[in-house]
Amino acid sequence: MASIRQWARLIFVYLLIPLTLLVCGGELGWWQAWLYSMLILLTGIGGHYWAEHRHPGIISARQNKEIFQGAKAWDKLLAPMMAVSIVFPMVIVAGLDHRYSWSPEIPLWLNAIGFTFITLGYMFSVWALAENRFFYSVVCIRLDRGHVVCDTGPYRAVRHPGYAGSILALFGIAIALGSLWSLIPALVASIITVIRTMLEDHTLQEELPGYREYAQRVHYRLMPGVY
C-alpha cells in the first residue's frame, strides 16, 4: 500500500500544475484555467486512487527508486523528460500566452472541443493505469514480480494507451486554454512520447514473454489504423 508520504508527494505534484497555470496566467477569473485544473486534479488524483484500489502498491512501485535504477539506460533520460514535458511547459506557455495575449481569441466551440480532448485523453490514460498493474513510471521488465502482458481494457485497442491518451490531451490543452503558442511544447512532448513508445515497444517484444504474440493481435501502438 502507498504510504502517506507517497500520497502527499503525488498530490503536491498535481496541485502544483494548476498553481503554475494560474500564476503564469495572472488572472483568477480565467474560467478555462479553473476547468482544466478541476479536470487534471480529478483524473490525476482520482485515477491514482482507482489504480491503487485495484492494484494495491502500484503508487509505491511507481515511486520506487530501486525500480528506477533498474530501468533501461535510455529511459532514465526519457522518462523524466516525458513526465515534465507533458504538463509543465504546456501550462507555463499557455498561462503566459493568456497573460500577454500572444494568441488570437479562440471561439468557445473550439474551447469545448479542447476540453473534450482533454477529458477523453486523461480518462483513457487513467483507464490504462488502473488496468495494468505493471504500469511503472519507467521502462523495466520485472519477471521477478510476475510481470506479464496486459491485454485487457484499453490495451485491446492500442498497445500503449497511456501514451495515446496523453498525446490527445496535449493538443486539447492548447485548444481549451486558447493558446496557439502552446502547440509548440505539445509537439515537442509528442515527439518525446513517440520515441519512448518505439523504444519501449521494442524492449517489450524482446524481453517480455508473450508480448510478440500480443503485438500480432493488437497491431497499433498509439492510434488504430495509423501507428
Folded structure, characterized:
Helices cover 67% and strands 0% of the residues. The mean pLDDT is 95. Helix 1 runs antiparallel to helix 2 (31-54), helix 2 (31-54) runs parallel beside helix 7 (108-131) and helix 8 (161-176) packs antiparallel against helix 9 (183-207). It is an all-alpha fold. The protein is built from 10 helices and no strands.
Kindly list the characteristics that best describe this protein:
227 residues; mainly alpha; 10 helices; 67% helix
Mean pLDDT: 95
Strand content: under 5%
Q: Based on CA inertia axes, which overall geometry fits?
A: globular
- Which value, in Å, is the CA radius of gyration? 18 Å
What percent of the residues sit in helical stretches (DSSP H or I)?
55-70%
Uncertain runs:
none
Number of strands: 0
SSE order, one letter for each helix or strand: HHHHHHHHHH
In whole angstroms, the N-to-C terminal distance is: 36 Å
Counting DSSP H or I runs of 4 or more residues, the number of helices is 10
User: SS-based structural class?
Assistant: mainly alpha
Q: Mind summarizing the main beta sheet? A: none
Structure described in brief:
By secondary structure, the chain is an all-alpha fold. The chain has helices at residues 4-25, 31-54, 58-62, 65-69, 75-85, 88-100, 108-131, 161-176, 183-207, 211-217.
